[in-house]
Amino acid sequence: xxxxxxxxxxxxxxxxxxxxxxxxxxxxxxxxxxxxxxxxxxxxxxxxxxxxxxxxxxxxxxxxxxxxxxxxxxxxxxxxxxxxxxxxxxxxxxxxxxxxxxxxxxxxxxxxxxxxxxxxxxxxxxxxxxxxxxxxxxxxxxxxxxxxxxxxxxxxxxxxxxxxxxxxxxxxxxxxxxxxxxxxxxxxxxxxxxxxxxxxxxxxxx
Length: 206
Description:
Blueprint: E1 25-27, E2 33-35, H1 39-49, H2 60-77, H3 79-93, H4 98-108, H5 113-126, H6 130-142, H7 151-162, H8 166-175, E3 178-180, E4 194-196, H9 197-204
Antiparallel strand pairs: 1-2, 3-4
Helix pairs in contact: 1-3, 1-4, 2-3, 3-4, 3-5, 4-5, 4-6, 5-7
């Protein structure tokens, strides 16, 4: 005799959503279903773990494109909440500083005036060391399609230099004279991803 005994919410296959919880679930990159993630959780996870490595199912390029789109959207609509999340991750909680620093630049690039204010507010909390400043300016230089070194960025960098004592500033500049990010392209004598404190002093006329 046929009946509905095959319906079982306790042993749902991964390829299907759980019976009665369809609205709470969505297809994932593995081809199965998982519970939906709210925007704040998605942003926090990306800030803490970054997108510089491939996942099992998605390349780092696709992950990063999604990360950039999500950060830009939140910067336009909820700049204060985004700034707080960036500052939280950039305080030393993130696995690496790459994602908080990139998100900081995207925050400054928003057309929302409040986003620019929030950028200035949290800049010293995220860019805490000389190597952070080098990485920040490497992204500024390489991603000019997103953000050029406008007055908002210049004022934040000036503020960073003014906020250190002479002794601490000398320590930061001498310890982190230069850094190379990524790999040098074949045939290049000097990597385009190399940036020095000398470059920053010239760029911002400090």
